[in-house]
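(Fold this chain)
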Amino acid sequence: MARVASTLAFAALAVAAPLDARHGSGHTQLLAPDGPTEYQISYGPRPYYIVQNMTEGPLKDKLMSCENGPFSVSGWSIGHRGGGTLQIPEESAQSEEAGARMGAGVLECDVAFTNDLQLVCRHSLCDLHTTTDILLRPELAAKCTTPFTPANETSDATALCCTSDITHDEFMSLCSKMDGSNSSATTPEDYQHGVASFRTELYDTCATPLSLDTFIDLVDALPGYRNFTPELKTPPADVPMPFNGYTQEQYARDVINAFINKGIAAERVWPQSFLPADIFQWIKEFPEFGAQAVYLDEEGETPETFETAVARLPSLKAQGVNIIAPPFNYLLTYGDENNDTIVPSSYATTAKAAGLDIITWSFERSGPLDRVEATEDYYYNTFAQAVSYDGQLYEVLDILANEVGVVAMFSDWSATVGYFANCFGLTGPVGGSYLNK
């Protein structure tokens, strides 16, 4: 497949944003509303489809009133895996650019490491077999932790390919593709498919992978002054740490140093991790970065562990954590005995009472809402009976924004969140404001 060129021509438009806005403090100097000579924020039809699908009422009226803008970049909108992931291969230059075009003020790179200990953008260290064309490259497929095995009468097709199996240069030679695999495949070519039905393979035409360095360069060159959120990926059991002497501590250190080496101010970076030790290390070693580190919390997956996760929130704040980031199902629950309404959960109210800011994830990862109860979709599992049509996407977002009070939202299609943020004047957290909180 021929590589689709990364549209770094966006960089040529960077003159629309003053240099002091792109390199200054915080993110309050985000791009102003669109003008004829400025970078055009474009939401496409999806936000309007959702609004038109809503039940009549004040929220719909408010969102309808914003249909003609003006629209601007918002730091409340975080591009999950780039922000174009609903339709465009994740962690690719094209997904980052799509999220930016849809107004995301913060863009994400999930940081993994290669065999030669270089940092690259990939949602998991061991997902190359489903998110790239590595199995179509015999010389690289041979290096996979588990080579491709075709399906047979008793077993599904299998493979396991990790960033740590190959070098940086080999990783950068791959084509990124939509995440998916065909468990019935008998050939590597057949295994490339299996994308979720609510996504698309329309843009699955060899998207450009990113290293952490090229991600930083791309985002820094985008008009409108964007911020960064690198997630330090926890290595799976298939990549035991230390890896050839490379420790988790050095891995965490290298992520922050990549931004320091590029001259990116700490207030523009929102580092994330699921491991408390990573967060506490950043707080200690890089206090300006650590002050706005985002602790990703998924410790409340059962009723028992949920209560434990809620109870420990005040202690996390006492240890210097300022931002907690659970999945949004942790923040919402049923509000009546008939399961018809949605209200903030005990997690949401406890986090706010403890003085923690809340960022949450991930909107637009679930497909149509009329399917989420039947499919036991993860993100809606605490209130699935209360939603059944797509207009309720903005009802859910309204509760998260205006009742829970989340300070930013990750989304796989940045237009949906960006439209809402613009309509309600949501600008996101202010970089540099957390250091002495």
Q: What stands out?
A: The first helix runs from residue 19 to 23.
